[in-house]
Amino acid sequence: MSIKIRFVTGDGVFSKIIRSAQMGFWASHIESIQSDGTYLSAYASIGVQVMAKDYDKGSGEKTIEQAHMEIPCTPEQETAYWEFMKAQIGKTYDTKAIEAMAEGVFIGVELPPNLDAGCWICSSLHMYAFVKVGIIKICPVEARLVLPRDIFCALCSLGYPIKAS
Please, which residues have CB within 8 angstroms of residue 48's CB and are 6 or more apart in sequence? Predict the structure, then answer.
């Protein structure tokens, strides 16, 4: 049993801002890869959704780098992970978290508490799911503050290999 994820970045302004917030870390987005190859994540314009395998083709933002990771897990962890992730479909994108992160990068403002329960950015959604099912034992910061870099580092430190593509 395993959970497959994709780290990705594009050439658009939004991706560049997120990379800047991560002090240059290359991936600006994380997605879970379902068994049919579709992606499940939180997306800026539509919230938590399932996207087609080729959704980023012709979207206006060209994918410039991506890498995949396969995380071995127990059947119970895999089931709990997907149950949680699928239960989030339809929830909104946490635009206030992104705005606060951008302000923090540019003017030193800290992220306020999450006043919009039930909304996600891609990395907070994934970190919460990984902690919930015991793949990552503890979130190093408030889940709302987690960036793709943090998940990448946590999973790599646990010995999960990354495959560039």
Answer: 40, 41, 42, 88, 89, 90, 91, 92, 93, 120, 125
Q: 3-class SS at 85?
A: helix
Helices (H), 22-147: 75-87, 95-107, 122-132
Average pLDDT, the chain: 86
Q: Which residue has the tokens 């699928």?
A: 86
How many Cβ atoms from other residues are within 10 Å of residue 63's Cβ?
15
> Which domains, and CATH codes, for the chain?
2-164 (3.90.1720.10)
> Coil, helix or strand for 95?
helix
Residue pair 135/73 in contact (Cβ under 8 Å)? The answer is yes
Q: Which pair of tokens denotes residue 109?
A: 């403002």
Q: What is the pLDDT of residues 46-91, one digit of tens each?
A: 999 999 998 877 666 788 899 999 999 999 999 999 999 999 999 9
Residue showing tokens 């083709």: 57
Distance CA 26, CA 18 (A): 9
pLDDT at residue 104 in the model: 66
